[in-house]
Design goal:
Length: 467
């Protein structure tokens, strides 16, 4: 096998405004849904001890952080625009201070040679959008389009890759229903209504298509796509046809309701068969008519799952098999992060599936990373700087990508999650993902050992000749 990567491979790191920007009530920013719900005592447990009010204060520290990225040879930075910062109150009044802020940030990145990958919607929706019905209201598509237009107009000359949405399974679907089980969602407005969950997801798909179409009409030369959490779902037993079918249905339910429309222009058959009653009428037709090709698909890869046929719930909530997943779980996370596993083969398998079955013409690994716990007694102090576990994790996943690229899978980028220590939805500040450690009291930044290792790797592979 060749450990070679394309010359322009996007060696990057990622984060979102919601998780590092802070400055929640500065610079004319409006309330996000999280700012609103995190202040209501009955929802506080979703936000753990800390609210994302200040985080690592990237808003004021961005130059320092970008300088560290550049010193470490990073080629690209993935970040998001905060919709409530740009449109604090309504769909038409843009906040000029936010335009200036993002222009300064993006210009600084470009001057320093970083390729910009920008998400339009990474988890922070304006509270005014939700109050008008959020993604369950079909007008959401118009509001999103107006927001996208303002972003293209103001920042379009600097951004090489746009993503319309990040992990909508969480930010959209699970506002209304649990993504992976039965019960209330874990995102605002924390409802428990399957019809709303599928309706909101459908309108998000249509909003995505509108935003892609508009981008092309405006004549920009950059690329546009979307970021989904994609991972393989294996059958519990390969010799049991029912398990094989269960795994396929589970994948369609979890991933196919996004990548079916995004990459193939229609919902998977099993989604239509099992969940039609929860969608608005004519949903398949609407997608077929609105479909517009994307330039790349982004994958946030953290895990793999198993599915076993269950006679009680043949379509929904098929159980994972604990015996088979347990060996792949990462003990270093103390079993708390059940959804994040060190399983590089799954990354190979999912990019292969996207290539073979979904004909993705370009695949970007938009997130992959390992959380390590902070000391509960000293929550301001970052977790270890000598993070060998993270290096092992990254090495395994990057090697899996090298194997996939070697056999022709069109992977063009890899972004470590995250560039620096972040606020994690549902977990507060208890765990660190950062290549850069942040002390939340002093705001001091310290690059971790994994960042040094990553810098060496980038230097090494960039010096190689392409085969
Ligand atoms: C995916 C999300 O996009 C990101 O916001 C989150 O912090 C990471 N997963 C880790 O859970």
């Amino acid at each position: 096998m060749n450990f070679t990567f394309p010359k322009d491979f996007l060696w990057g790191a990622a984060c979102s405004a919601y998780q590092i920007e802070g400055a929640w009530n500065e610079g004319g920013k409006g309330m996000s849904t999280h700012d609103h719900y995190a202040r209501l005592p009955e929802y506080a447990h979703y936000y753990k001890a800390g609210r994302p009010d200040t985080c690592s204060d990237f808003y004021h520290h961005y130059k320092e952080d970008v300088d560290i990225m550049v010193e470490h040879g990073l080629k690209s930075f993935r970040f998001s625009i905060s919709w409530p910062r740009l449109f604090p109150d309504n769909v038409k009044d843009i906040n000029q201070e936010a335009v200036e802020y993002y222009n300064d940030l993006f210009s600084y990145c470009c001057e320093k040679g970083l390729v910009l990958f920008v998400d339009l919607f990474h988890w922070d929706m304006p509270q005014w959008v939700l109050e008008l019905g959020g993604p369950v209201n079909k007008e959401f598509i118009d509001w999103f389009e107006a927001y996208a237009k303002a972003c293209y107009e103001n920042f379009g000359d600097k951004v090489a890759y746009w993503s319309t949405m990040n992990e909508p399974n969480f930010s959209i679907f699970s506002g209304y229903y649990q993504t992976d089980g039965d019960g209330a969602g874990i995102f605002p407005p924390f409802e428990n209504d399957k019809t709303k969950a599928f309706t909101a997801s459908h309108y998000m798909n249509l909003a995505h298509m509108r935003a892609v179409k508009l981008y092309r009409e405006m004549g920009f030369s950059g690329k546009i796509g979307a970021v989904i959490d994609l991972f393989p779902i294996y059958p519990y037993s390969l010799s049991d046809e029912k398990d094989v079918e269960a795994a396929k249905r589970r994948f369609d339910y979890y991933a196919g309701k996004w990548i079916g429309p995004l990459l193939l222009g229609e919902y998977p058959e099993s989604v239509v068969e099992c969940y039609s009653e929860y969608f608005p009428e004519g949903f398949q037709e609407e997608i077929r008519n609105a479909y517009v090709e994307i330039d790349y698909i982004g994958d946030n890869y953290y895990q793999q799952r198993y599915a076993k046929y269950s006679p009680e719930k043949p379509y929904f909530d098929l159980c994972d098999n604990p015996e088979q997943t347990v060996s792949d779980k990462n003990d270093e996370m103390g079993g708390i992060f059940v959804d994040i596993q060190n399983y590089p083969q799954g990354l190979y398998d999912i990019v292969m599936l996207l290539h073979r079955e979904y004909h993705a013409k370009e695949i970007v690994i938009t997130e992959n990373g390992l959380p390590l716990p902070r000391d509960k007694e000293n929550p301001a102090v970052p977790s270890k700087i000598q993070d060998e576990e993270r290096i092992r994790y990254m090495r395994g996943h990057i090697s899996a990508l090298a194997r996939a690229i070697d056999v022709g899978v069109p992977v063009t980028g890899y972004y470590v999650w995250s560039i620096e220590d972040t606020y994690e939805h549902g977990l507060g500040f208890d765990y660190d993902f950062g290549l850069i450690a942040v002390n939340y009291e002093t705001m001091e930044r310290t690059p971790r050992e994994s960042f040094r290792w990553y810098a060496d790797l980038i230097r090494f592979v960039s010096g190689q000749k392409e085969t």
